[in-house]
Amino acid sequence: MTKVDVPPSTDAVQAVARTGARRPGRRAAGRNWAPTAFLLPIAAVFVVLYAVPLAETIYYSFTDFNGFSTDVNLVGLANYRTIFTDPSLLTGLGFTLAFALATTLLITMLAIPLAVVLNKKFFGRSLVRSIFFFVGVPSQVILGLVWQYIFSPLNSGALNSVLAKFGMDPVSWLADPQIARGCVVFVAVWAGVGWHAMLYLAYLQAIPADLYEQSQVDGASGRQQFFHITLPQLVPAVVVSSFLLITGGLRVYELPFAMTKGGPGYATNTITQSIILRGLAQSDYGVGSALAVLFTVACLAVILVQLRLAGIVSKRFA
Amino acid sequence: MIRTHPGRRADGRRTALHSVVMISITAVIAVPLYYIVISTFKTPIDMAKSPLGLPGSWTFDNYVNVFRTSPVVRSFINTLIVTVVGVAFQVLIGSMAAYGMILRKGRLTAAVGTVLMVAFCIPMQSTLIPLYRMEASLNLVNTLQGLILIYLGSAIFCYFLIVGYMRKLPMSLLEAARIDGAGPFRIYWQIVLPLIRPILTTVVVFQTLSTWNDFMWPNVLLSSTENRTIVLQVYNAVGQFSTDWPSFMTVTVIALVPVFVFFMFCQKWIVSGLVAGSVKQ
């Protein structure tokens, strides 16, 4: 495993601040038209794939547009009211939030100790690292489908066949709302722990070794070192990893869709699945778009909190 | 100093303990992978009787069956086309933009930087419905070109990864090239791109993985069998081989082999992409 440089986590914040500052020395570096020419393709991407569609989403969210009729009426906040009264959408909203929180907590609590162990030398370490990492690499859909077979309610399901060995009855894993939710979260944790442990590992390797050497001289135990050196040094990594997990969790779609199609009932329905189902399959553009707007606002809120946290953390720990 | 010796022995014992514990946990983690692979060598009856056991008699019929009845080769080629073309354009657009940004500091670049930062925070789901309508009006639904067009959106992510690296380039080098008479395009192509190769590799590896694995857009856009990407093919294999579980697992293995090979060769760049991406996201 190669060492990876860990850039400071406030780069993004600084980048915004820096673009405002002029550096006279660089002015001469290009002819006047050149920067514009190089920025044209990304400007096109921005306008066509981001700005215009986002404006359309916001507009549709206030209308009763169904994709076909030319008679489009403004309906005010009716679509937003629908979201908060429709049980399928509400359950989807609830499961998405629960999924984001549960996976963030579980993966963070498991990935940090895993990374600490993977940072120590032991026989078979690179194999262990690779397998933990690899299960997070394939498409979540493929993983979800395979797990759907493992969780098969039949006696021939892999998990139920193990239970049978211990004389237990088969369980309908994905047919019970609560168990199905648990199973989806479990698979997400299974796939995500190694991935995030690699992230923590990269940050762990950047902790200066003399911190540990000094504390060893002072007679600190392994436990004391973990709580007084490793954890504080990992705070920036926790901020970054949990942010990835929360935003990724809010966007979740593929894993539950592959495992349960959002069922049983709407137990594992997600916001993204609702946007696709309502907005595209059922041509209910208004409700689908209103959902998309709420979703965007939620994601932006999380990002703002993250930037704040990153600022605080970099001040406190840098 | 006297304690060095017993200390080392305790260390050795602890290392052995780590190995035993970690290798057992990893074995449990890897059970699904074992399950996928071992199932492909079983008959359906064999798989139903003992899902996790070794095959009663090893069979390769599932592979013959899948390659005969399922267009896995076609969907593999489709995915390859979409990924190669898509990632090439993402990286090109992203690196051009990054170069344009370091060429000159001014009001324009400051505005562009802010705008891209905002765009970066918009999740794909928010624009899904209008983008689908746009593809429909351009007759791009159910085409690989349409899928590639959507994937160009990731150019903004590439831009953020690349621009941070590019800002650390020695400007004197570009300045010297300019004085020697090289135009901006030549400097970009012959000096800047070779200089930023490490970050380009990282971005290419990371974007290849996420483009290859994407399911949402192929599922929304592609409807005909001959256009399917490999992940969509696996998804459809559930219905195609409804009770024939070993054949489904075979499709899965065929889909996972390229990912596994890619992982073996590019593991370290996936990590560096993970770290670089985490900082910007």
TrEMBL record, chain A:
Keyword Kinase annotated: no
Domain ABC transmembrane type-1, first and last residues per copy: 93-306
Organism: Streptomyces muensis
GO cellular component: plasma membrane
Subcellular locations according to the entry: Cell membrane
Domain of life of the organism encoding this protein: Bacteria
Name of the protein this chain belongs to: Sugar ABC transporter permease
Keyword Lipid metabolism in annotation: no
UniProt entry keywords in alphabetical sequence: Cell membrane, Membrane, Transmembrane, Transmembrane helix, Transport
Cited InterPro entries: ABC_transporter_permease (IPR051393), MetI-like (IPR000515), MetI-like_sf (IPR035906)
Major location category of this protein: membrane
UniProtKB/TrEMBL annotation, chain B:
Classification via PANTHER family: ABC TRANSPORTER PERMEASE PROTEIN MG189-RELATED (PTHR43744:SF12), ABC TRANSPORTER PERMEASE PROTEIN MG189-RELATED-RELATED (PTHR43744)
Record keywords: Cell membrane, Membrane, Transmembrane, Transmembrane helix, Transport
Membership in a protein family: Belongs to the binding-protein-dependent transport system permease family.
Compartments in which it is found: Cell membrane
SUPFAM superfamilies: MetI-like
Segments passing through the bilayer: 20-41, 76-99, 111-132, 144-166, 187-209, 245-265
InterPro entries from the UniProt entry: MetI-like, MetI-like_sf
GO CC terms in record: plasma membrane
Main location: membrane
Name of this chain's protein: Carbohydrate ABC transporter permease
Biological process terms in GO annotation: transmembrane transport
Entry membrane topology: Multi-pass membrane protein
Lineage: Bacteria, Bacillati, Actinomycetota, Actinomycetes, Kitasatosporales
Domain of life: Bacteria
Source organism: Streptomyces muensis
Residues covered by the ABC transmembrane type-1 domain: 76-266
